[in-house]
């Protein structure tokens, strides 16, 4: 894996160390997450964040475990870090850091106070909501280490304040149970029980959200570090509170062994592949219904569009096809009226996308093509034929095959956005894309051809599918090219001067990256040419992937910043989306153009934001600062996929 290591100049500079985030996960959607500095900059940061019935229903439990070391002289050095509502940062333990590294997926800090060096490592138990925090004396001593446990128990998207009831603290052997929800265990527990008022999260302030909360100082653990090698460890866990986990040091070593095994199973070609294979592992979770995919940390749960777009990279290019087979079966069971369920973070199961189902057709086709698993193809064939039949007949939101040309169109009420460009502001879609979107129809053409092949592999006649595919592909080639040399983003869209459903239509020729799928998919309707790709590259490409809108287009937003409405307004109006590097590179390869230099920026990004991972989005203008989730499934999956396919 790539070497992720920072010395004192990065660690001690808050603007640098507080914007680099680490993540360890429990395989269920829970996690521990924070910054290199140790400063919590998000409401989502914590050492024990517990997944509920779904990965999105998370609760924050143990927030921080602040170390303070008492030296032989009696002097005390505080190694933690908090920012307060006044803007003051105190303590400033990051100024004593001499190194941070992320080794085999385990974050490690080293603080130096004179000749005393103390190390911290954090890992989670796989398959259980449990975190282990290990402190070790590397040199110097003897010293005493106190660990102040700041706690809460609240929804990950909110805050808890001192004007409400304090968390209930129950004394148990070796520690305490907080609010009956999670347990703390370690040496020499001393209960405290007081509020820390006005802890500030600077990233929430930047996102226009309430930045402050109050934390409950539950108590502290203490232990002597008499000589190098001595350890003081703390465990925190939820679920079965009576079942004590293995020792913390054993959990850290178990995490390292598992991470090595995950990487080895993926058979990486180089250190970047190995890093991406481990990054991919964070998103593959096991729920009560089987395998699933977390779309992004820290705030997303499972979204079917993201899952299916990520499928090949997360499962097939990491040799996890057995888990993938179970996932595809489970998702097939959610089909209704030919539409795949979108297991939204709201907790409701909704069928409200035009493209997730088409990505599902693609995922099944790729699974069979890569693995040779024709049994799964045959098993799912009736469901897949049902998808096509429902789209031909017409399904929810006006999604139907236009009998005039065989292309897929979508309508729906004016407050609905059905494509991946689904941002809404005050209930109004920013990019409604009503009509026939280019990537939706590329996926439709691709899906028909892939399903025809699966049908023939099962020994059945695919003549009707082949005819539908030929007709839709011919219509695509006729309708989507623009005089400007690229493809329309939407054809047959309602004219702006007319209400939704009005008679006149127009074709939207704004330069967007959605057209890449028309050249990149296995059964793409068009062959790319160098001149067209050069135009698209000039208008859209950045070091972190394509922009969602060219800078010279009306409505372009270069900075994905501000409050929720401002950010959502720019979400697909110029913001960079790293996941689009996949179709971008595929299109280049199909055109016979070199691609190695296209990935340099994203590979460098692995040490810049979400450490060892790829962000959800970035600013459309230089220096293309990362935004959104620091750890995003389809960003990782598509970079991993195109790197591995290129070797």
**What is the radius of gyration?**
26 Å
> Between the first and last Cα atoms, what is the distance in angstroms?
18 Å
| DSSP helix fraction | 25-40%
Indicate the overall shape: elongated
Organism: Micromonospora fulviviridis
InterPro entries: 6-hairpin_glycosidase_sf, 6hp_glycosidase-like_sf, AGL/Gdb1, GDE_C, Glycogen_debranch_N
Domain Glycogen debranching enzyme C-terminal: 279-641
Protein name: Amylo-alpha-1,6-glucosidase
Describe this protein's structure:
Helices cover 30% and strands 27% of the residues. By secondary structure, the protein is of the alpha+beta class. It has a nine-stranded antiparallel β-sheet. Strands 2, 3, 4, 5, 6, 13, 17 and 18 form an eight-stranded antiparallel β-sheet that branches. A three-stranded antiparallel β-sheet has the order 29-30-31. The model has no long low-confidence stretch (mean pLDDT 96).
Annotate the secondary structure layout.
Layout: E1 4-6, H1 8-11, H2 14-17, E2 21-25, E3 31-35, E4 46-51, E5 58-70, E6 76-78, E7 81-83, E8 89-92, E9 97-103, E10 106-113, E11 116-124, E12 130-139, E13 143-155, E14 169-172, E15 175-178, E16 182-185, E17 190-200, H3 202-206, E18 212-225, E19 231-238, H4 248-266, H5 271-281, E20 284-287, E21 290-293, E22 296-297, H6 304-316, H7 321-332, E23 342-343, E24 349-350, H8 356-371, H9 374-393, E25 400-401, E26 408-409, E27 424-425, E28 428-429, E29 436-437, H10 438-457, H11 463-479, E30 490-494, E31 505-508, H12 517-520, H13 530-540, E32 541-542, E33 545-546, H14 564-570, H15 581-590, H16 600-605, E34 617-618, E35 626-627, E36 631-632, H17 633-645
Antiparallel strand pairs: 1-9, 2-3, 3-4, 4-5, 5-6, 5-13, 7-8, 9-10, 10-11, 11-12, 12-19, 13-18, 14-15, 15-16, 16-19, 17-18, 20-21, 22-36, 23-24, 25-26, 27-28, 29-30, 30-31, 32-33, 34-35
Helix pairs in contact: 4-5, 5-17, 6-7, 6-8, 6-17, 7-8, 8-9, 8-10, 9-10, 10-11, 15-17
């Amino acid at each position: 894996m790539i070497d992720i290591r920072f010395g004192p100049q990065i660690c001690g500079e808050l603007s640098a160390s507080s914007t680099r985030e680490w993540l360890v996960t429990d395989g269920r959607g829970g996690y521990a997450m924070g910054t290199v500095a140790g400063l919590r900059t998000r409401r989502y940061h914590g050492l024990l964040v517990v997944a509920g019935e779904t990965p999105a229903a998370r609760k924050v439990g143990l927030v921080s475990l602040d170390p303070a070391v008492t030296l032989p002289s009696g002097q005390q050095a505080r190694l933690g870090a908090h920012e307060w509502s006044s803007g003051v940062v105190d303590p400033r333990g990051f100024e004593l850091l001499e190194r941070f590294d992320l080794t085999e997926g385990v974050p490690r800090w080293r603080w130096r106070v004179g000749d005393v060096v103390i190390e911290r490592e954090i890992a989670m138990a796989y398959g259980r909501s449990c975190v282990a925090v290990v402190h070790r004396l590397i040199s110097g001593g003897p010293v005493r280490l106190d660990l102040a446990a700041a706690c809460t128990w609240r929804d990950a998207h909110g805050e808890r304040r001192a004007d409400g009831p304090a968390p209930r603290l129950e004394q148990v052997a070796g520690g305490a149970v907080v609010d009956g929800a999670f347990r703390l265990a370690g040496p020499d527990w001393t209960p405290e029980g007081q509020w820390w008022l006005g802890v500030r999260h600077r990233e929430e302030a930047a996102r226009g959200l309430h930045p402050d909360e109050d934390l409950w100082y539950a108590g502290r653990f203490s232990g002597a570090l008499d000589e190098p090698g001595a350890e003081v460890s703390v465990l925190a866990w939820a679920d079965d509170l009576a079942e004590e986990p293995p020792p913390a040091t054993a959990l850290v070593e178990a995490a390292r062994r598992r991470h090595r095994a995950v990487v080895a199973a993926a058979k990486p070609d180089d250190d970047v592949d190995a890093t991406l294979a481990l990054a991919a592992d964070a998103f593959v979770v096991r729920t009560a219904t089987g395998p699933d995919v977390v779309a992004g940390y820290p705030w997303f749960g499972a979204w079917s569009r993201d899952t299916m777009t990520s499928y090949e990279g997360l499962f097939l290019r990491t040799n996890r096809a057995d888990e993938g087979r179970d996932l595809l079966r489970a998702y097939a069971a959610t089909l209704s009226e030919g539409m795949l369920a979108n297991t939204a973070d709201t907790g409701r199961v909704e069928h409200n996308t035009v493209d997730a189902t088409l990505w599902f057709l693609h995922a099944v086709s790729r699974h069979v093509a890569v693995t040779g698993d024709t049994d799964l193809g045959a098993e799912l064939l009736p469901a897949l034929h049902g998808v096509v039949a429902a789209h031909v007949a017409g399904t929810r939101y006006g999604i139907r095959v236009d009998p005039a040309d065989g292309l897929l169109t979508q309508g729906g009420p004016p407050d609905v956005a059905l494509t991946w460009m689904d941002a809404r502001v005050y209930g109004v879609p920013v990019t409604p894309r009503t009509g026939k979107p280019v990537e939706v129809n590329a996926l439709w053409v691709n899906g028909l051809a892939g399903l025809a092949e699966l049908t023939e592999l099962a020994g059945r006649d695919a003549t009707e599918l082949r005819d539908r595919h030929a007709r839709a592909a011919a219509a695509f080639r006729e309708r989507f090219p623009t005089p400007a040399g690229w493809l329309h983003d939407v054809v047959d869209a309602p004219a702006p001067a007319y209400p939704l459903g009005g008679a006149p239509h127009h074709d939207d020729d704004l330069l967007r990256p959605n057209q890449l799928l028309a050249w990149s998919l296995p059964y793409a309707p068009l062959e790319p040419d160098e001149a067209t790709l050069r135009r698209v590259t000039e208008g859209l490409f950045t070091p972190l992937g394509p922009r969602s809108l060219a800078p010279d287009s009306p409505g372009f937003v270069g900075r994905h910043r501000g409050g929720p409405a401002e950010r959502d307004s720019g979400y697909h109006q110029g913001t960079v989306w790293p996941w689009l590097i996949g179709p971008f590179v595929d299109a280049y390869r199909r055109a016979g153009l070199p691609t190695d230099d296209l990935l340099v920026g994203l590979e460098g990004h692995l040490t810049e934001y979400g450490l060892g991972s790829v962000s959800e989005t970035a600013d459309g203008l230089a220096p293309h600062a990362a935004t959104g989730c620091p750890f995003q499934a389809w960003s990782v999956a598509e970079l991993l996929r195109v790197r591995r396919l290129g070797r």
